[in-house]
Amino acid sequence: MSDRRCDRCQEREAVIHLHRQTGEETVVLHLCERCAAEQGVETTISLGKTPVGSFLASMGKGLEAPGGVALAPGGRCPRCGATLSDFRESGRLGCGECYRAFEAPLRDLLRRLHGSSRHLGERYHAPGNGREPEPEDSRRLREQLRLAVETENFELAAELRDRLRALGGAENEG
Amino acid sequence: MIDLSLLPDGGLAWLDGSGPASQLVLSTRIRLARNLATYPFGLRASARDRESILREVLAVARETVSLRRAVSFRLDRLGREDRQLLHERHLVSKELAGLEEPGVVRPAAALIVQDRVGVMLNEEDHLRLQGLVSGFALDQAYQEVDRLDSELGQRLPFAFHPEFGYLTSCPTNVGTGLRASVLIHLPGLVLTKEISKVLQGLAQVGLTFRGLYGEGSEVVGNFFQLSNQTTLGKSERELLDHLGKMVRQVVEYEEQAREVLLRDVPTIIEDKVWRAYGLLRHARTLSFEETMNLLSGVRLGVSLGLIDRVGLYALNKLLVYTQPAHLAATEGVAVDDPELNVRRARYVRTLLENEAGRRG
Predict the structure, then answer these.
(1) Hey, is the C-beta of B231 within 8 angstroms of any chain A C-beta?
(2) CA distance A100 to chain B (A)
(3) What is the tens place of the pLDDT at every residue in B280-329?
(4) What is the pLDDT averaged over residues B101-109?
(5) Between chains, do A116 and B37 touch, taking CB under 8 Å as contact?
(6) Chain A stretch 142-161, residues whose beta carbon is closer than 8 A to a beta carbon of chain B
């Protein structure tokens, strides 16, 4: 899925996924960084000059702003109680669990900030546990799927559904 | 008053001027942002959480080879001048030192330091591991901090997400948590007015710049800290290679600018660097900022081979010891002493006289 070409130039890899609301319909545009910039979407190229603060302030307003990246409001982090609007105000997450609670909107934000949401650096192995920490479980994936559908991130929803299927837990998910 | 000589190397190994490309690059610093999975991040952590974090990390640090001879300081128990001293040494951020408005140190803010590595505790992230080396040496700085990271990570449960990587308080640091900064002197590009073009070019390739004291600080004395802007989507190696490649490019531009200056306006340049030297050698009062700017001129003169009465180490030493808290500590006066500028001029004069005498 990450190999998707840009819808506009059909050449470069699409890294920005733009959700546009037209009446009842949501159209998803997959764009490369350059075409996105030409469409007026902030990317890492323009970030050099843009303080992260003002950029964060625009978070979550994407639903009203045509052409913005959609970030729907979420609930509370079950662990520290932080909300998305706390994050919008302070620019800081409350705890590690916040990254799971707000995974879908954060994934979009990380793509805009860094051009990618996938960590390619060193993998961490928690103490006394030779494996990767936090193996994927279907309960968590289902929660992510629910959030992705809620935030109309259909591309992610499809990816999560595939991952759930692979885990063998999607039969009853409809 | 803390005795900085207690630090294994006085915390100044990075200024010895021995590292690669030392004429242009003062130091290379790499920091890794890490958080414990078991506590809320900086903004939401209670004073009690912060005390527990400090206790846990200190206990592990005692068992850590990279920190076997380390010294630790609780910043919340130090006076303002001591905190400023540690900040001027680039060992703690302005925020951790409580030097930002309103000037409050947060509970359990601490520093652990040994040789070329250090850990800031209870900053925005629970841990900010740092490797600091002399000259342009990204690989060496990374090896230092990577070893510390591996050792600590074996005993402390870091917050990590399979897709996003190391989790940080601010999403701009997530992933590798790595920020590499190269402190570089660019008077040639400033004098030829090419600097804004170069900085714009860096922004376009995902790099950013800051002043002498890091985030939010102004550029003084033509010193720039060049660093990576993004931390996610690339491996540590890729981030360092990219920064390294671009810094080498900037070094080349700076050298070209200097050649142009020497070729087109040699008399102006020679006059400029000698005037800077003359003022430092004879002035009776010097503000910190003026000192930095004059030191920049002399540094340019030394690296162009126009001035031989002073060496790089002496210039680096002046850079550190003419800072307000350092000067006040050396002279045994308060930072707000009304005579500080007079004392600074005397300090600089004496050091330059001795240096000229020594070099004969």
Answers:
(1) yes
(2) 9
(3) 999 999 999 999 999 999 999 999 999 999 998 899 889 989 999 999 99
(4) 89
(5) no
(6) none
B37 touches chain A (CB under 8 A): yes
Question: What is the C-alpha to C-alpha distance for residues A60 and A72, in angstroms, rounded to an integer?
Answer: 6
pLDDT tens digits, B328-343: 999 999 999 999 999 9
Per-residue pLDDT at B155 exceeds 70: yes
DSSP line for B256-317:
HHHHHHHHH-HHHHHHHHHHHHHHHHH-S---HHHHHHHHHHHHHHHHTTS--SS-HHHHHH
pTM: 0.77
Among chain A residues, CA nearest to B41: A95
Q: Alpha-carbon distance B112 to B152, whole Å?
A: 13
Cβ contact, residue pair A96, B162, below 8 Å: no
Average pLDDT, chain A: 70
Residues 6+ apart with CB under 8 A from B144: B30, B66, B116, B117, B131, B133
CA–CA separation, B156 vs B228, rounded Å?
27
Among residues A62, A70, A46, the alpha carbon closest in space to that of A153 is found at A70
Residue A43 falls in which region: left (phi positive, over 0), alpha (psi -120 to 50) or beta: beta
Q: What is the pLDDT of residue A73?
A: 46
| Cα separation, B356 vs B272, whole angstroms | 19
B residues 144..183 contacting A (CB < 8 A) = 153-172, 174-176, 178
What are the residue ranges in chain A where pLDDT is below 50? 1-2, 42-51, 54, 60-73, 130-135, 169-174
* Per-residue pLDDT at B144: 92
- For residue A88, list chain B residues with Cβ-Cβ distance below 8 A: none
HSE, side-chain direction, 13 A CA sphere, residue A60: 15
d(CA B94, CA B11): 17
- Give the pair of three-digit tokens for residue B345: 């001029």
pLDDT band of B143, cuts 50, 70, 90: very high
Asked if A126 and B39 come within 8 Å (Cβ–Cβ), the reply is no
CB-count exposure of residue A135 (10 Å: 0-12, 13-18, 19+): exposed
Q: What is the pLDDT of residues B202-258, one digit of tens each?
A: 999 999 998 887 777 778 899 999 999 999 999 999 999 999 999 999 999 999 999
CA distance B238 to chain A (A): 9
Instruction: Inform me whether the C-beta atom of residue B201 falls under 8 Å from chain A C-beta atoms.
Output: no
Residue B280, judged by CB atoms within 10 A of its CB (0-12, 13-18, 19+), counts as buried
Is B228's Cβ below 8 Å from some Cβ in A?
A: no
**Residues from chain A contacting residue B174 (CB–CB below 8 Å):** 99, 110, 114, 119
Of A93, A114, A134, the CB nearest to B230: A114
